[in-house]
């Protein structure tokens, strides 16, 4: 016969009477059900956990967000974006079979939950995007289970330094500490985590310093993200020993020296961003192997020089090329206009000469182009919107001539044209504002003639029209004032009537 204390009817009573030390005798699975209810209570019975209610034994394995092993022990708890709030419940530490815990994007408060040291089987731990704070305990790395492969603490308010003890987590493959308030420098000990594939450190409050040279041993790294980490000194050399690297983002730091040519030999590199640093010198490309690049962003270094490497025009997956606010020169290779994936091209504030690649827009879903403040000549490519997705062209302060292409004006996705201070001629095409999304036309300081088209006057989406210093004629279109326009400037034309 079953022992009376196992009877379901008495279970609640027994639980209430026994101190927690004596519950060890109960089946571990039954324990887990009780712990889940304890977690639910600690979080104030949130609506999202309404489905966690006392019912037949083993039923907890069917509760939402819970998964068990065959013995009925809870192994997975996935409560991401579940809208739970309050301190991290100690009861979670009792779920000693847990291998996978994700409580990301909630309102969990307090300090790092050391109760998790009891969950020694944990492989995956994600506490990101909560309101946890305080220092990470110095022993965190030696107390968490060594089976841990993923530790995600992003988007909290952890302060203090990165504990060197994290290097004890020898199986760690993914470590994400970005978007916290961590200080100090990155400990050299992390170089012992040789299985590491993902290391995210961006947006912390570190002291000015370098990433440790011991990272030379992190040869399995695929994603290294250290935006705004107060990095100083030369471009880190250890990156050359990361042949698996797919994503490298060292933007918003004060790295100096040049971009090493070997960066382009990293065969698997897909995303390379070093914008807003103090890098100088030419973009030198010798042995180029990174044919899978989708994003190149070296903008806002102010002093990068040289030309756009011809090979960039042969990157079949390149969607974004961002080189603005530097000192690049030479012509834009025509091959850039034939890239099959290009969507965004940002080249403003450099010293580019020659013409815009005539085929731009014809071979890819092109959406956005900024080429202001260069020394470009020739005409605006007529196919920018050939694929029907183009939104914005800014090309102020060049020497562009010819007229505003009809096909561009007719583009239904078009939102803005900024063409001030060029040598454009002809009329403003009638088709402008065809898609009803058009917001701004800035084309002062050109040689535009003819009248302001009727289509523009009726364009209810229009917010800015700046056409000073042209040769526009006809009546001032009074009706413009009923479009919802905010900025309107038409000085120094041949318009008749008054505004
Ligand atoms: C228990 O949760 C289930 C859903 O999992 C729900 O259908 C049932 O009504 C709940 N029972 C109580 C007593 O809240
Ligand atoms: C636990 O979650 C992980 C990741 O979602 C999944 O791969 C695994 O199959 C889950 N285990 C169980 C028992 O549901
Ligand atoms: C979580 O915090 C956000 C903003 O701080 C708040 O809007 C939301 O209501 C909170 N949710 C809970 C469950 O407390
Ligand atoms: C760690 O993983 C190994 C291999 O899967 C397993 O045998 C061991 O029990 C795990 N350790 C813990 C504490 O769960
Ligand atoms: C860390 O955060 C805790 C809790 O918010 C605060 O009391 C402490 O002063 C902070 N420490 C530092 C060094 O900022
Ligand atoms: C690197 O990754 C591969 C494949 O995931 C794995 O076989 C190898 O053991 C890893 N190397 C180290 C040093 O962990
Ligand atoms: C890399 O690892 C080797 C062997 O584990 C070790 O001897 C060496 O000091 C490490 N290199 C760095 C730069 O930490
Ligand atoms: C980096 O450049 C910024 C602005 O261009 C400048 O203010 C700063 O002093 C430079 N820092 C270093 C370390 O060169
Ligand atoms: C471009 O992307 C596709 C799809 O992701 C991939 O199959 C192809 O290998 C990539 N090309 C290069 C050169 O890496
Ligand atoms: C850009 O390069 C030119 C030619 O090398 C040089 O004269 C000029 O000073 C540089 N401009 C800046 C802002 O570095
Ligand atoms: C535009 O400028 C180029 C070179 O500056 C010149 O060859 C061409 O004739 C000009 N075209 C027009 C339409 O003015
Ligand atoms: C632009 O649209 C107008 C009608 O609004 C049409 O007459 C003209 O042929 C179109 N031009 C091009 C190049 O698509």
TrEMBL record:
<feature type="signal peptide">
    <location>
        <begin position="1"/>
        <end position="29"/>
    </location>
</feature>
<dbReference type="InterPro" id="IPR032675">
    <property type="entry name" value="LRR_dom_sf"/>
</dbReference>
<keyword id="KW-0732">Signal</keyword>
<keyword id="KW-0812">Transmembrane</keyword>
<keyword id="KW-0433">Leucine-rich repeat</keyword>
<protein>
    <recommendedName>
        <fullName>Leucine-rich repeat-containing N-terminal plant-type domain-containing protein</fullName>
    </recommendedName>
</protein>
<dbReference type="Pfam" id="PF00560">
    <property type="entry name" value="LRR_1"/>
</dbReference>
<dbReference type="InterPro" id="IPR001611">
    <property type="entry name" value="Leu-rich_rpt"/>
</dbReference>
<keyword id="KW-0677">Repeat</keyword>
<keyword id="KW-0325">Glycoprotein</keyword>
<keyword id="KW-1133">Transmembrane helix</keyword>
<keyword id="KW-0472">Membrane</keyword>
<dbReference type="Pfam" id="PF13855">
    <property type="entry name" value="LRR_8"/>
</dbReference>
<dbReference type="InterPro" id="IPR053211">
    <property type="entry name" value="DNA_repair-toleration"/>
</dbReference>
<dbReference type="InterPro" id="IPR003591">
    <property type="entry name" value="Leu-rich_rpt_typical-subtyp"/>
</dbReference>
<dbReference type="GO" id="GO:0005886">
    <property type="term" value="C:plasma membrane"/>
</dbReference>
<feature type="domain" description="Leucine-rich repeat-containing N-terminal plant-type">
    <location>
        <begin position="30"/>
        <end position="69"/>
    </location>
</feature>
<dbReference type="InterPro" id="IPR013210">
    <property type="entry name" value="LRR_N_plant-typ"/>
</dbReference>
<dbReference type="Pfam" id="PF08263">
    <property type="entry name" value="LRRNT_2"/>
</dbReference>
């Amino acid at each position: 016969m079953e022992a009376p204390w196992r009877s379901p009817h008495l279970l609640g009573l027994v639980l209430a009477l026994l101190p927690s030390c004596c519950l060890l005798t109960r089946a571990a699975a039954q324990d887990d059900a009780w712990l889940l209810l304890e977690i639910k209570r600690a979080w104030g019975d949130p609506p999202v956990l309404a489905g966690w209610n006392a019912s037949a034994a083993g039923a907890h394995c069917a509760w939402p967000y819970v998964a068990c092993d065959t013995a009925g022990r809870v192994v997975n708890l996935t409560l991401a974006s579940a809208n739970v709030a309050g301190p991290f419940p100690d009861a979670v530490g009792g779920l000693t079979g847990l291998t996978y815990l994700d409580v990301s994007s909630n309102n969990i408060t307090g300090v790092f939950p050391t109760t998790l040291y009891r969950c020694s089987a944990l492989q995956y731990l994600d506490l990101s995007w909560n309101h946890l704070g305080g220092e990470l305990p110095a022993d965190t790395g030696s107390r968490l289970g060594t089976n841990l492969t993923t530790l995600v603490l992003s988007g909290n308010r952890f302060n203090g330094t990165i504990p060197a003890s994290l290097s004890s987590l020898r199986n760690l493959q993914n470590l994400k500490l970005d978007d916290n308030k961590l200080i100090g420098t990155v400990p050299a000990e992390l170089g012992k985590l040789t299985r590491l594939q993902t290391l995210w450190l961006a947006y912390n409050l570190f002291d000015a310093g370098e990433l440790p040279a011991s990272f030379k041993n992190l040869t399995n790294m695929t994603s290294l993200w250290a935006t705004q980490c107060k990095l100083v000194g030369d471009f880190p050399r250890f990156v050359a020993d990361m042949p698996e690297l797919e994503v490298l983002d060292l933007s918003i730091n004060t790295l100096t020296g040049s971009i090493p040519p070997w960066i382009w030999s990293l065969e698997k590199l897909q995303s390379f961003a070093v914008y807003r640093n103090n890098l100088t010198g030419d973009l030198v490309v010798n042995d180029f192997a990174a044919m899978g690049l989708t994003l190149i962003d070296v903008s806002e270094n102010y002093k990068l020089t040289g030309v756009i490497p011809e090979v960039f025009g042969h990157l079949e997956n390149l969607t974004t090329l961002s080189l603005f606010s530097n000192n690049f020169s030479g012509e834009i290779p025509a091959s850039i206009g034939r890239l099959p994936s290009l969507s965004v091209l940002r080249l403003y504030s450099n010293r580019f000469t020659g013409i815009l690649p005539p085929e731009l827009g014809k071979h890819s879903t092109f959406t956005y182009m900024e080429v202001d403040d260069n020394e470009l000549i020739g005409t605006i490519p007529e196919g920018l919107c050939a694929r029907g997705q183009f939104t914005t062209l800014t090309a102020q302060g060049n020497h562009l001539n010819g007229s505003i292409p009809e096909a561009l004006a007719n583009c239904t996705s078009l939102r803005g044209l900024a063409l001030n201070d060029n040598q454009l001629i002809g009329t403003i095409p009638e088709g402008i504002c065809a898609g009803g999304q058009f917001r701004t036309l800035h084309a002062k300081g050109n040689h535009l003639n003819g009248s302001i088209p009727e289509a523009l006057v009726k364009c209810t989406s229009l917010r800015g029209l700046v056409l000073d210093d042209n040769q526009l004629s006809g009546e001032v279109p009074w009706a413009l004032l009923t479009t919802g326009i905010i900025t309107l400037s038409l000085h120094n034309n041949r318009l008749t009537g008054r505004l």
